[in-house]
Amino acid sequence: MNKTFSLAVALLLKLAFCNSIVSAQTNSIDLSGTWFFQVDSLDKGVQEQWYNKKLDDKISLPGSMTTNGKGNDITVNTPWTGQIVDSSWFFKSEYAQYREPGNIKVPFWLQPVKYYKGAAWYQKNVSIPDNWKGKHLELFIERSHWETTVWVDDQQIGMDNSLGTPHVFNLTHVLSPGTHRITVRVDNRVKDFNVGQNSHSISDHTQSNWNGMVGKLSITARPALFIDDVQLYPDIHKKQVTARIKLNNEAGRDNKAEIQLFAKSNKANADGLKPLAKSIELQKGDNMVEVIYPMGNQPLLWDEFHPDLYTLSVKVKGGKETDERVISFGMRDFATQGTQFTINGQLTFLRGTLECAIFPKTGYPPTDVESWMHIFKVARSYGLNHMRFHSWCPPEAAFDAADRSGFYLHVEASSWANQGSSVGDGKPVDQYIYEESERMVKTFGNHPSFCMMAYGNEPAGKNHTKYLTEFVSYWKKRDSRRLYTTAAGWPVVPENDYNSTPDPRIQAWGQGLKSIINGQSSKSNYDWRDIISKWQHPTVSHEIGQWCVYPDFKEIKKYTGVLKAKNFEIFQQKLKDNGLDNLADSFLLASGKLQALCYKADIEAALRTPGFGGFQLLDLHDFPGQGTALVGVLNPFWEDKGYITGKEYSRFCNATVPLARLPKMVYLNNEELSVPVEVAHFGEKVLNNITPTWNIKNVSGKVLFSGQLPSANIPLGNCHQLGEIKQSLASIDQPSKLSLTIAVGDHQNSWDLFVYPATLPDIDKNIVVTQQLDEQAIQTLNKGGKVLLTLKKGSLKPEKGGDVLIGFSSIFWNTAWTGGQAPNTLGILCNPKHPAFSAFPTEYYSNWQWWDAMSNSNAIRMDSVAIGMQPIIRVIDDWVTANSLGLVFECRVGAGKLIVSGIDLVANLDKRPEARQLLYSLKRYMATPEFAPKIQVGVERIKGLSKEQFFSAAK
Question: Is the domain 344-503+527-547+601-644 a CATH 3.40.1010.10 member?
């Protein structure tokens, strides 16, 4: 190693604890690297003037205490930030092993490797160059969590508490040339302005309540006359942009200056734009200048199909110095037309998901554009064009990536004022929300992707409607670049630019088995027109979906960062304890197929609704908190789980989607299929001279029927009627699963249909079908006969499975957070090749033909019948309880053979073609030599399944 290189290395090592290298190009000092550090758990640092001493420890920034391995071990007394609705972990014996030191595992959310709530101190020495004398100096902390108080040497500079924007401190009058000590006290405790413990800006439910500073950390020098702020207001109709420029003149005298503006597009040779200069007179302090910049005859417009951007260079020259700001912006007009949204005058439809600050590797959001580009790319591959940031505001990089990706963003002022907080009641949070929204608009307001803003999520407070109505009115008058609503969820008020409400969706909170998907037989001909008809503004359905899937335990190894899936480890062990761990992957895939079916139903209902504004999913990817809500077809790392791809999902979720208004999904072969066909088209342009086609295939892929619908020009919008499919099903002489596919140009969508024979042949009349194990049934079994016991819904004892709340859909959100809302199950799992299904076509998972069975049944606890009993039709239980549940099982009783069905296969069969067909299929199986159950069960064990009153009157 040569001497020069050695000296350079030594200098760099010294600078790690002193000055970061000054960038001559940007006149900034990069403060990333090693800082001195000290935890202040006793809150004595201010009193003891820690800013005047060298701190004891070291830490690496950007980063958090957790990413640096700092903080306390997790215990039963960890002071979490976030509501725990189901607190049974703290006292139930089944969780006792997870409350032991060294084996702490919580089910509420992802578990950090370390935890700390309180004050912590960060300190770094900096060397200010001589040529910075007389300049404006700023300390820039891109994202802190959360409250920062800054000292330079022994002088306190100020405090900042923004949760969603950078913390910027003016150090002009305290940083003279030479060496100085910068000290930052960061406090991550909930403040007097309680934004709400579940707000994703602060909560352990998702990003974690971290302590630290991330993103860009720097001290920047600017001329004494500098550009403090630039806000751009594009006008696509006048083909111009109005620049409102705030100049700060710290020179201490009035003087003249020149403003220069010059815009360039992100496309080569697409400009023809020219510089514009303007002379101005300046006063000391703040000066506001407004300049209108012409954008040429044909400015490029920004939207989801063409995310064309411009950069505007703004220079101010005063004396010998020049300051410059370069701002990225887009020429766009995001507006409303009646009850729908428009982008640049064309109808659009919001297909959105939520981002709830879910970043398991770090526990805090990324500040690099590449990470966010990946997120938007994945979301786009699933047909989305919109993202809502639930009770938090993302960093600059997210807006940059959304600008480049053509994504429409709904952003919130860091609050979910509920569960311990409220708005409109005169508390400090009322003022904080105005201040935070002001900071957000100032910092991110030029981004074309920043299309929508709300105070936050689902507010509480006796005066919240008045407060939020005034909030909307304030912002509508102040800044017309985006649309405003009171809050995500409620209240709906006339002043809103758009409404966010949970009313239009197929399952509501607390609705249980009375929802459309669980309380009404399968179909696809409903929409939300009656719900939204009372409103004059666009409606966005709030947090639709929330359909769960079984945990993917293979995912555990992916948590290589600061947050660990200890919740998954608890659920995995429960499954193993119940002897079902070999079924984990099957449970994932089967429940995943049902989950995707539920999301398809939810999304298509929105697309079928005339005059609708759009939807916001909860969620495209999993929500790890609130008791673990596995609602994503993607995991928290934005990866698919193996049961549906973006290509498949985007068939029913996209800018253009063919739609079928099916009155039902199950038919008899003496019926005619009569299906109105329409299309939702919110694409780039009108589709001209399109001839829609359709076909119906069997499971082998053979086309049984096909046809064309009249050719048409398809305008932008939805509910464009394409015609009607009419097809006799008389030629379908076998029970069949069919697939109806409709194509509109390059866009296809499909639906599974089930057709059963209207007339069924007789089966062995010696098979006794009964709803009670009466004397006749017992005698038949004792004589070696065959019995099919089909239980009435509600007849099962609670301890035998009668307390399991079973329904067709997947679990909604989760059982921990909803208080056990029905259904508590995740569909069926079966072997479709089992001979019991020879006349009842099925996959291994729930499809529409299982709606009737799941709606007219109880799940039977298999261990209450016999240990190790494997059902013919299994019900997937909630992962929290992970019981072995069945709908249909077989066994030997006495000398005979028995099938027990938790599905009522007797009542109202004239109105239940699925039940009629399943009964036939089971009886046909029982009539064959293949019906040979191995496990012997005593008759009293079978009788003990049902409540006594159901045996009191034998027929």
Answer: no
